[in-house]
Amino acid sequence: MVQSCESWTEREAQVERWRSSGLKAEAYCAQQGLALPSFLYWVKRLRRQRVPVQPVAPLQLVPVSVQAPTPTPMALGSLTLRSPAGWQLSLPASWSATDVLALLRQLP
């Protein structure tokens, strides 16, 4: 006969006993008269409750201005990034978006 656990406290205790038993879930459930699918659901749900949720910083909008480039001999074939903080970075136009993104991720 399949045993049922009514409260999450009972289910958590059952999962802890299984973990300390050293048995595979199938063997433990057969020994305890537990339905394996329900037991695996308990394990999954309890694991999710244990994982601390990391606070996520709120998204912040940053003002951006787009201007048509002024063609100069030096600027042809390059990409210039200007920061509101005042720094400027010129890159060859041959760089892919992936390369630029990888570089930007390295900036403080």
Automatic annotation (TrEMBL):
Entry superkingdom: Bacteria
Listed NCBIfam families: IS66_ISAeme5_TnpA (NF047593)
Protein name stated in the entry: Transposase
